[in-house]
Amino acid sequence: MTLHLIGQELSQQLGAYCLDGSRPGYWYDPPTPRAAHAASNRSWLVFLDGGAWCYDAQDCDSRSRGFRGSSRAFPARYWPYSGPLDKSVAVNPTFAGFHRVLLGYCDGSSFTGERVTPYALGSGAVLHMRGRAVLHALLLHLMRAGMREARQVLFSGGSAGGLGTVFAANWLQAQLPAAKLKVLLVSSFFLHLPAGDAPTCTRGRGAQSKCLPWAVKMQQMCALHNCTPTVRAAGVACDAAGAGAECLLPAASLRSVRPPTFVINSAIDSWQACREGEARGGAVRRLMGVVRASSQLVNVWRRYYRCRYDGTPACSTQQVAHAVRETNGMIGRFVDAVHVSGATSRPGHGAFITSCNEHVAGVSADGFMHYSIDNQTLRDALARWWASDSNSPASEHTRLPCTLTHKSSPDSPNHQCNPSCLRVKMKRRLNQECPCDPGK
Which region ranges are annotated with the description Disordered (predicted)? Predict the structure, then answer.
C-alpha cells in the first residue's frame, strides 16, 4: 500500500495536524482486477490504525518524534494486517476485492482530541492535539478521491484505533447516506475499571510501587487532548462528570452508534492484563505501535496469573484454582460490559468474544480463519453479519466465550476451554502478558 498525505489547504482549513504539526496521511491499495472490476468497484474498507495513547505532555512529546506522532516518520509503503483486511481471496473472500485504506494514527487520542490551541512545551516546541479534525480530514480526502460514490463501506479500527470509529461512525453515515455502512471493532473494547479494581503491581520485572491506574491515565489523556467535545458530538449518553474517559470507552459510547456494529475481542485481552510496552514479540510490538517501553505502567486489569497455565513450576492445586477462578471473573465482567453496550442485543449488531489470551489476533490470518466458537469460525461469523440486513437480530450474530476449566486434560490443555485458541501461535500470545504480580 502506498502513502498519501492530505493537502495543505484541507489540513489548514480543519486544523488537522499530527502531534508534531505534520499533515496526516493514509495508505491505500486499489482493488485487484482479479478480485473485482476495479473501474466500477464501489466497495471500501477503511481501517483506523491503533497504538495506545499519550497520557501527558512528556508522553506526547516523545510520541511526536516517531511513527505514532508524525507523518514524517510514515513509511512510503505499509500494510501489516491480514484477516478481514487481507487482499487474498483464499484468506478473506468477503472483503478481498474492496478498496483498502489504512488511516495513520498520529494524534495519540484515538482520533478524539479537540484541543483548540497547540500545547506549548518548555522547549519552545508545540504539540497539536487535533485527533477528531485529523480523522475528519482523512475521511473527507478519501471521499473526494472516490469514496463519495461508495455503495458499501466497512468502517473499522484496531485497538486504540477502534475507539475512533465509534465517534466518527454516525458522522460518516451522514456523509454517505446511500451506502451500506457497517462498523467493525477489533480488540477495541476496553473496560473502565475503577482504581480499586486494578491494584498496583508490587512485584515482578519492572513493577513500580507507585503507578497510576489506567482509568486515571485515560482521564488525564481526555483532559489533555480535550476529548469531551468529541464524546458529546457523538451523542454519547453517559452520566460521568465531564464526559471523560468512562464515556469514551465502548460500554458507554457504543450505545450511541447508529450503524450496525460487530465487536471482535478477547474477554481476557492480553493488552488489558499486561504492562504497557511489555509485549515481547517484536512483530506484535510493531503491529500496534506500542510506545515508551520504559514507562513501566500496567494496563487495565493488572493481574498476571501464571498458575492458570500448565507446565508452570511451583503452582499448587489451590493456586491453580485461584488463578482460573479470578480469570473467569474477568471473563464474566467483560461479557457483562459487552451486554451493557448493546452489542449483543441491538438489531444489526453482533459480537465474537473469545477466551483466547491475545490482542488484535482478529487481524491476523490465523486468528481470522481458525478462531471458532460453537463450530463457527470468526471469518464465517463476520461474513454472515456483513451479509445480514440492519434489522437482523443481534442474537444471530453473537458468539460468547466459554470459561476456563479448573482441571486441565489432554483435550483441554492449559486450562483452556476453547481448543481453537491453541491453534493461533498461543505461545507467543501468552508472552504478551506482563510478569507482574499485583499482590494479594
Answer: 391-418
Whole-prediction pTM value? Answer: 0.89
- Closest residue by Cα to residue 231 from 131, 300, 137: 131
The per-residue pLDDT for 307 is: 75
pLDDT at 94: 96
Mean pLDDT, range 36-43, rounded to an integer: 66
Nearest to 287 by CA among 356, 364, 357: 364
Residue 320 has a pLDDT of 83
Q: How far apart are the first and last CA of the chain?
A: 49
Which range is least confidently modeled, 225-239, 248-262, 302-316, 343-357?
302-316
Mean pLDDT of the 171-181 span: 97
Question: Long-range contacts of range 227-236, CB-CB < 8 Å, 24 or more positions apart?
Answer: 227/109, 227/112, 227/113, 227/114, 227/131, 228/114, 229/114, 229/132, 230/112, 230/113, 230/114, 230/131, 230/132, 230/167, 231/112, 231/167, 233/167, 234/166, 234/167, 234/170, 234/171, 235/170
